[in-house]
């Protein structure tokens, strides 16, 4: 009888210990392994909750995450995978466990199904010798560039900046702006990296490109200046395609998924991803690990889902103007 009691006591103790063990969290990401693993390790050190990080393509993630036999609890996707996150939202595979407001972020990316940090930020790159003293600070200044010397990436391949600007302003004024750009000889071509190279070479005086592509040509020796456009109060803001974080909808939700999300969305985590080159610029003013100030970018006011969802309707209208 005593032996039986000892066995039962040992079994009960094991159950209690198992119940006290924190539920591990499985994180899928298409971001580089090192910065995400560092964030996961910091979360585990702070909370005692283990995290398994699986790095794979967003195509692989969208095929498996949310399936009944898949262990994924949280996804963290790059700016280039925004359409994958929007697809998962549309297919109701995401669980709205945290809003942008709860995470301390100023911008709701889509609905409440996922939350966005900073990501790929679009900017003006200016060749100062060709533009002169009056530097632009808005996309609308493209019409003041030397004729035939301003450019944008191919709108057929990179339409979302123009779509976001179009959605954010009065339609009749936008049509006038696009016609003015065309009459000023706006150039289209290539991607954002090609646009940055054309400004650096002096072929173009100014162009819309991404912040990372603009930074990549600063060492060419050309007199260049990067300007984040439309950042003053009441202005449009600039296109920011976010790094996104979401919890996966499961029959038995992991109670620690929200805790990991909250950790990944902290200002300190966003600063770490800026330092790693994963995020161009943050959405909140902050300081990095070295105490350097990081200035927040004001994104376009339209939610990213609205911008990407407008391609079929508004995109064809813009294409007819360009043609």
Sheet having the most strands: 10 strands, mixed
What structural class should be given to the helix and strand makeup?
alpha/beta
Query: In what range is the share of β-strand residues?
Result: 15-25%
Number of helical elements: 13
Low-confidence stretches: 1-19
What does the average pLDDT come to?
A: 86
CATH fold-type name of the largest domain:
D-Maltodextrin-Binding Protein, domain 2
Helix content: 25-40%
Provide the CATH superfamily of the largest domain. Periplasmic binding protein-like II
CATH architecture of the largest domain: 3-Layer(aba) Sandwich
Q: How many E strands?
A: 12
What distance separates the N and C termini? 90 Å
Structure commentary:
This protein has 323 residues and is of the alpha/beta class. It folds into 2 domains: 23-119 and 241-284, D-Maltodextrin-Binding Protein, domain 2, CATH 3.40.190; 120-239 and 308-322, D-Maltodextrin-Binding Protein, domain 2, CATH 3.40.190. It contains 13 helices and 12 strands. The strands form 2 sheets. Strands 1, 2, 3, 4, 5, 6, 7, 8, 9 and 10 form a 10-stranded mixed beta sheet that branches. Helix 6 crosses helix 13 (311-322).
């Amino acid at each position: 009888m005593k032996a039986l009691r000892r066995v039962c006591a040992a079994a009960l103790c094991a159950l209690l210990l198992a119940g006290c063990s924190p539920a591990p969290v499985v994180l899928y990401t298409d971001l580089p392994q090192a910065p995400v693993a560092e964030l996961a390790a910091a979360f585990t050190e702070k909370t005692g909750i283990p995290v398994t990080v699986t790095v794979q393509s967003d195509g692989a993630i969208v095929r498996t995450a949310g399936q009944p036999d898949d262990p994924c609890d949280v996804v963290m996707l790059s700016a280039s995978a925004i359409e994958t996150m929007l697809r998962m939202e549309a297919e109701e595979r995401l669980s709205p466990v945290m809003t942008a407001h709860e995470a301390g972020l100023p911008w709701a990316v889509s609905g409440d199904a996922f939350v966005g940090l900073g990501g790929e930020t679009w900017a003006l790159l200016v060749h100062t010798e060709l533009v002169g003293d009056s530097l632009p600070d808005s996309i609308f200044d493209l019409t003041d560039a030397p004729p035939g010397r301003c450019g944008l990436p191919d709108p057929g391949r990179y339409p979302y900046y123009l779509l976001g600007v179009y959605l954010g302003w009065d339609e009749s004024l936008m049509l006038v702006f696009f016609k003015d750009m065309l009459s000023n000889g706006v150039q289209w071509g290539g991607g954002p990296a090609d646009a940055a190279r054309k400004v650096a070479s002096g072929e173009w005086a100014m162009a819309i490109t991404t912040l990372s592509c603009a930074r990549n040509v600063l060492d060419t020796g050309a007199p260049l200046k990067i300007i984040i456009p439309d950042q003053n109060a009441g202005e449009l803001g600039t296109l920011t395609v976010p790094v996104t974080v979401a919890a996966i909808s499961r029959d038995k939700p992991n109670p620690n998924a929200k805790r990991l999300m909250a950790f990944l969305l902290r200002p300190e985590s966003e600063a770490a991803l800026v330092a790693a080159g994963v995020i161009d610029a943050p959405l909140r003013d902050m300081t990095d690990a070295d105490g350097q100030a990081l200035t927040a970018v004001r994104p376009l006011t339209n939610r990213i889902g609205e911008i990407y969802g407008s391609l079929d309707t508004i995109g064809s209208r813009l294409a007819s103007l360009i043609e």
